[in-house]
Amino acid sequence: MSDALIRLEQVTVSFAGQNTLERIDLAVRPGEIVTLIGPNGAGKTTLVRAVLGLLTPDSGKVWRKSRLRIGYMPQKLQVDATLPLSVLRFLRLVPGVTREQALAALHEVGAAQVIDSPVQTISGGETQRVLLARALLREPELLVLDEPVQGVDVAGQAELYSLITRLRDRHRCGVLMVSHDLHVVMSTTDQVACLNRHVRRSGHPEQVSGDPAFVELFGEAARSLAIYHHHHDHAHTLHGEVVADAGHTHSHGTHCNHG
């Protein structure tokens, strides 16, 4: 496992005497998408904070590749409605970023048209793409994505997951993703870890989806619906409208918010 970008070994985190995470083992390698799924309160956000170095485990070890560059995409962007902040200015809060670099990152995520828009006026899908562009500006070896399709409709979710896969392929970065969207995630991830304070089951999606621990966490319906492919002869805009004949295939999922 020496090729890992980050590795957690027997990580335990507790708050007020209660274990939030118990003996977590997890690794992400270059070019690999690892998705954390689990009900609300399972410890997913705590695990992300441990990966980012924002908290120190009570026991166990978080190992990172030397000088690992991490691009982080939070669940949502919260900006005061009265703050004059364009997308460009927001992206240039990353140190050293020029307009040209910001525009290139927005092009890569399909959101170049919003570069001069106030961040408060862009749609949910556009906001998530801007947050993804900001993470890419750090030239990451590891992308950490916390609920990357938050606030995006079903059609837009599938497009975003497809984009994340393309970015992984292009940059050969590792991806650690937190998600509730079982259906789409199971068809776009290499490894899945079912978390409920400890890792109940991990492995390839097709192995995990039939496991009793997975069914226990997400219900019997999850077993049959976890891997569901929907073939397209069209694509969607950032807002979810259909545009004709894109000639590609991807998967659709419904938003499953368990907890």
What does this structure look like?
The chain has 259 residues and is of the alpha/beta class. The chain has 2 domains: 1-69 and 141-259, Rossmann fold (3-Layer(aba) Sandwich); 80-139, no CATH class. Helices cover 31% and strands 25% of the residues. The protein is built from 9 helices and 11 strands. The chain has helices at 44-52, 87-91, 99-109, 124-136, 154-171, 182-188, 205-209, 212-218, 220-225, and strands at 6-15, 18-28, 33-37, 59-64, 70-73, 142-146, 174-178, 191-196, 198-203, 234-236, 242-244. The strands form 3 sheets. Strands 5-6-7-3-8-9 form a 6-stranded mixed sheet, with helices on both faces. A 3-stranded antiparallel sheet has the order 2-1-4, covered by helices on one side. Helix 3 (99-109) crosses helix 4. 41% of the residues are buried. Mean pLDDT is 81; it is low at 225-259.
Task: Describe the structure concisely.
With 259 residues, this protein is α/β, with parallel strands linked by helices. The protein is 31% helix and 25% strand.
